[in-house]
Amino acid sequence: MNRRILQVCILLVALLGFSFGANAQVNAGSSSTNGNTPGTITTTVNNDLLVGVVEDEAATSATITAGTTSVALTSRVCSTADGGQVCLEDGGQATAASGTTAPWTFNNTDRNLAAITAVKK
User: Fold this and answer.
1) Comparing C-alpha atoms, which of 119, 17, 21, 110 is closest to residue 57?
2) CA distance readout (Å), 114 to 4, 5, 9, 13, 59
3) Distance CA 73, CA 32 (A)
4) Per-residue pLDDT tens for 23-56?
5) How many domains does the chain have?
6) Global pTM?
């Protein structure tokens, strides 16, 4: 599906932004608030920009919203192609921390792939 788009987005962010950490994982799907996560990373520099990407692997019309964490995440774009969706969120993290994540909330239980990277602002 859109896995190639997701891989290219993460690669560009990492290459252009001097990535300080990245993680990704496949989620079975959850409709719980923040139920779909890329796992966690540990940031080591204050004022990193967190970038999260998710790919909805199903051909349904899921409503996908940026998750809520101690970092204010903003959904920037969602693109639909090949029956699935790819969405991007970002937010500034004032203080470096362990357990940093960029979760997503779906209105259904679609299987998905989520990723996070932290980049120097």
Assistant:
1) 110
2) 13, 13, 12, 15, 17
3) 17
4) 888 899 999 999 999 999 998 889 988 989 898 8
5) 1
6) 0.82
